[in-house]
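Our preliminary data section would be incomplete without showing what the modeling component actually yields. Below, a chain of 507 amino acids is followed by its predicted structure, encoded as tokens that our downstream tools consume directly.
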Amino acid sequence: MTQRALQHALTRRALLGTLGAAGATILAGCTSSPRPPSRPAEDRVTRPDKEPAIFDLSFEEQSRYRPFHVIAPGFVALTEPSAGRPDRLVTSDTAPPAPFAAVEASVSRLDRGLVLAGLASDEDEHVLATYDRSRGRVAIEVRQAGRTRLVRRKKIDLPATFRFGFVLCENKVTVIVDAGSGWQPVLTERERVASAVDLRAPETLSRFRYAWGLRDADESAELGAVRAGLFGMTGLRDLHLVQHSDGRPYVRDGRVYLTATCAGMGFFQQAHWGVFTLDLDDPTRLEQTAQLFSLRDGLLLGDHAGQVVRDDENDEWIVATSSWGDFAFAGVHVRHSVTRDDVLSGVHLLETERTPLPTSVSSWDPGMTRIDGTWHVGFVESPSQDPFDFHPALAAAVPGGAWTDGLQLVGAAKDLHQCEGPIIAQVEQRWWFLASDGEARHYPVYDMEMRRTGRLDAPYPTNIPHPQLLRLDDGSHLMITFEGTQYAEKVLGYGGHGDVVIMRSRT
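Predicted structure:
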């Protein structure tokens, strides 16, 4: 790890440490926490005599599960049932549409030689994960301009039969193996890969195809099944309902749609954005239907953490996201795209523009709803990302105008410093602005004039879970959120969280 990378990791840990006693459980990956204490006096200052319906809701955890896929189901580009004994690097006819890709190869036998998996071009270029049986070594190999380099290597002992994989998340390459107990990362590298080839550049990535094979292997070596396609996720976070402009959840064929950040094998730049459906009869069933990437500044990036809204009046989709795809501790901002393409299915490379939010500091987590003819836009304001300092804010557009017309700040909770995940929600005909306070470990509730009126009665998992509410037909509500359990943090560092957590209100 470079000095700067180490500084970033320590800075993020310092941020999590500000969560007080809960900080240790976050870093340890604890998956449970006590219910919040009774509502403090300051939460009752602006409360009316009659309790609003939102404060009658009392949530309890219903289920918790971990979405994990090396290759996203539904986005498999190729399947080779039996690859046999290729004594060379085999390339497919398919190029990954974005620099978030994976190749999996089953090794039936390997007494001597190298297993290869990754990306390669017709111009004798490649970026590969390799396993050298003779030396007992995994490596990341890059070939450019006629020169081959091992940018990172590591000794490892694998059994005679195993699965071997290559994962690309942005410019970070990770070698993964499954020796019988599931996929585990064993080696990862970004900076040395990126210095040799920038796979975020569309013209560069388009030259590369999925690749696999054997090198210097004896006649007994044999590969089994090979699969390749777009990377899936090590966990999910930032779940946000896809909705109509008036706030109704978007439902198609009886399925509710959500966007979510697909945690990658690395930090924020290694994550990307996806669209999922939720089965309300079984909320543990999430199915990915779309992959959303940003095309900006000449690069393909995994911008994430936002919302998709169906603007029925104009027959188009509003896609708003956050510029985490190239985060370097030097600012984040909200971006958006408007399109008539069906962004709820398939792969989309979206050209985005900066959203004119009424703030002079960094911003993320956008979400918008049109209430009584006026668009309201929630977002996070962040005066610093090193160390992190952030709070929720609410803006409103010109009445009757488009969602970005004349946005003016309604208010911002500047007294909070580790609070994000703003959600505009309606409960019993009344609109609220919800957020998540990682320091106090609860969910503050604001009215639409940004006056604090209380907090949700709900468990608070690790990390900073977002309070996404969904009303069910029986009158109860789900809270669809996440927590902070990391995936292989010792190898990959922070960023591989988390479990999906489903809570339900008592009826």
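The mean pLDDT is 91. The longest helix spans residues 3-17. Preliminary results of this kind motivate Aim 1 of the renewal.
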